[in-house]
Amino acid sequence: MFSRFLFIGRRRWNRRTEDPKKRYYVDRFGRKAWVAVAVILVLCGADAAFTAYHLSQGATEANPAVAWMMDNLGILWPVAKYLITAAGLFFLLIHKNFTLARIATIFIVVMYGSLMIYHLSPFFI
User: Fold this and answer.
1) Core vs surface per residue 115-124: b (16+ CB within 10 A) or e
2) Which domain holds residue 51?
């Protein structure tokens, strides 16, 4: 999973046909994986910005973990939220060829997309 070739190695897929098809690690990640990571990070940042806006309008934070970060970290809570998300994405990126990691990545994109619809709905209704 972790090796000195992570990000600089040559292996992008299984080398032999007898290798397992669904569970394997690679040294370099494909375009789809990087796009998924970028989309999630952008949505995470947008979520933090919309959350700050809605809080300034009198809303309250529904996520207890983020509420705790807001209470204890002050203005640094978006940085902490972003770093936690990035760490989780790094784990998913390494495991991108595992079925559960793929399902989790799709789930995260769908959930953040739904959250963006929720955040944007007051502007259109």
Assistant:
1) beeebeeeee
2) 31-124
